[in-house]
Amino acid sequence: xxxxKKLSYCFLIFWFVLSAGSIASAQxxxxxxxxxxxxxxxxxxxxxxxxxxxxxxGVIAVVxxxxxxxxxxxxxxxxxxxxxxxxxxxxxxxxFQKPTKVFEDIINKGRTAMAALPxxxxxxxxxxxxxxxxxxxxxxxxxxxxxxxxxxxELAIAGAEAAKSxxxxxxxxxxxxxxxxxxxxxxxxxxxxxxxxxxxGGRNYMVHTSRxxxxxxxxxxxxxxxxxxxxxxxxxxxTGGTMVDDKPIAADEIRGREITSGESRKLVPGDAMIIPxxxxxxxxxxxxxxxxxxxKVR
Length: 298
Prior knowledge:
By secondary structure, the protein is α+β, with helices and mostly antiparallel strands. The protein has helices spanning about 1-25, 35-50, 80-95, 100-110, 150-160, 185-190; strands at about 60-65, 70-75, 130-135, 135-145, 195, 205-210, 220, 225-240, 240-245, 245-250, 255, 260, 265, 270-275, 280-295.
């Protein structure tokens, strides 16, 4: 009898533990969150779409589920105020769990009292979209500064769509087209020096068929890494050191008169060189025609 009572008592304790665990599970749920890698993938998707539609600019901001900024990128040509506006759109989308166009439409229809909400967390302008993963809102993306409010929203939607691939295995195939250039096209490019591939489709590289007939200015590409392969002629290239009379000539491009205390190398056919972004380089002497491929990677 005592043994039976002990078994019954143990069973009751066991049942209580299992029940408590079940109750705790019922009262909590797995919460997904947006990582920095995920935020960067959202921005990359929005940037890729911007390149596809040739958007003139835009600032892309991504916030987490609490409306805190995680990542931001400002495309060339975008007005300075775009950063704060895009952050506001992203924050509004996630905190109110709706695209910001919903609130812009409500205000336009006469409910102007909504516009009095503090702009620190409410920006009722089209271009903010919640980022959703498995039915949960894990963040928001906002875009400002594209060609129109509608295009702001298109870029934001493209960014938010990236969340559909979070956690999925990377694709084994690519939808990007293969680029082919015939010998005649390549020869024509080398005859005068030309861009063979311009990086279209949102890709982060370009290919140049480059030709030099003489020395050039010192160059610094602040974002592009140059990968060189020599086909014909020779050149003395100076890298590193200190630029003299340097000045910007375009976005992310700096030129100078010469380099002091740099490292010199003579390049001949078959040689290859990688010049990281931000490193000064100068074709100081050239035996013409100097023909070489340049792959620019950003």
